[in-house]
Amino acid sequence: MKKLITFFIPPPRWRLPVIVLLGIFCGLGAYTIYVSKAYSYLSDDPQACVNCHLMAPEYATWQHSSHREVTTCNDCHVPQDNVFNKYFFKAKDGLYHASMFTLRMEPQVIQIKEASANVVQNNCQRCHSHQNENVATTGIDLEARNHGEGKMCWDCHREVPHGRVKSQSSTPHARVPLTDSPTPSWLKEVMTKDTHTK
To answer: What domain range is 159 assigned to?
Structure first.
């Protein structure tokens, strides 16, 4: 064990540069987590979804739906079978969304992917099982539906709970909570003093 620990300790002449580089790396990592509000995604708060402005129409339409009273975004869009699956799915989906947004590859019209569609379908059935015992949605997933073996819940209930959301332009005046600025207050004060002195 001691040999393993000493393997990772750099020689004396490299210790200071390694400590500085590790400090920079950890500092940038912490700042990235702070700016991206990555910690907010651990909660079930729907406002975390509008950290990304592309989700404003979805948030606004959910907020004006009857589902708002009994569900959050995660109740429908994240698996509910166990806590490990829930957070694994959130992490996988979140990393995909974050990378698409960072690389500016997000589509104007958001389309649900197959894995997410199956999760939403399962959650519809979980909450409404007493209503759909004799309906052709029970036990159906996207692949089965595409082969004509039944319907997804939203094939009939197309506007639940997001209305006719097609793109950002479909709800141009949607009221959504504004995200807080990642700029620290002390830096804002310095910036405003600089602009007043010029």
So the answer is: 44-176
